[in-house]
């Protein structure tokens, strides 16, 4: 089933924020600058979380330039990583990969294992969006083999994505083993927010494998934990999953009844992506029970909101391209100015050489004249 982003509703898109390279001593001035750049990066990330991708991109470019000047490799990597996520959410996956790989090289260079694993995992997620599952597996597998050296939260995220890609490439046995490992890990970390993603992923996998009872149980667990954490967004995600599972279980009447109760809460959440997905499910449910007039209404609503979201993304993407064009024009102007300065310098150097040549000639003639006059005086 095609989602607002093919697989984004399930994949754990991992964030990074490096507050300095461990074991590196900075002066008080460097620490102040580092802190300031991190604050700016946090603002850029907040803009991205709010769906203001063009603003996030503009801010990140400014931080990137400062990080280069200040030689803050960790912040530079974080910024490149954030730009990659911006393009990911705008569905420009090739650009996302470009920035992720740039970040990965720096993380590897500064030996930031958690961030290396996070970046590898997100590169894998991006290849999943491109439906390049074998390539995605390679990157998730590399991240998985770093799991023994990762922090608890990063390890859980990496394992979640690894278990999911194993399912996508139909390696169900190993996928099941990973989710068992995760289940054991969550007994030690029962309140981890990642546990909700675990239940949501497991619900989809069980549904795909026709284990519908288990799928419903996973959704119930996800909803319960989301309520406990006061995560309305994840609660809605679980409830929309339940609508999808009801359709798959050929209980479309229940899917309609339950789905209709979610419309207002989803609107209040102000998550257009979730509303789009809900309308899609309602269209499918009404179609399944042959209520074609209602199906048509939700089909039109689904495509209407999808078009609106796409228009917003395209506008933001156009703004990003405009920013890039302005930067490119600025670079060309600077380059042209540098060229003009060099040409002017060469012109002045040539003029100076001419003056020096004439000066040398004049001195030479003067010396000849003085020599001639001395000769004449000596002859008198």
Q: What is the strand content?
A: under 5%
Largest sheet: none
Average pLDDT metric: 86
- Strand pairing plus helix content: what structural class? mainly alpha
What is the alpha-carbon Rg in Å?
31 Å
Order of helices and strands: HHHHHHHHHHHHHH
Uncertain runs are 1-6, 17-32
Count the beta strands.
0
* N- and C-termini, Cα separation: 116 Å
- Please tally the helical runs, counting DSSP H or I stretches of 4 or more residues: 14
Gross geometry? elongated
Describe this structure in words.
The chain is mainly α and 380 residues long. It has 14 helices and no strands. Helix 3 runs antiparallel to helix 4 and helix 11 runs antiparallel to helix 12 (252-269).
The gist of it:
With 380 residues, the protein is mostly helical.
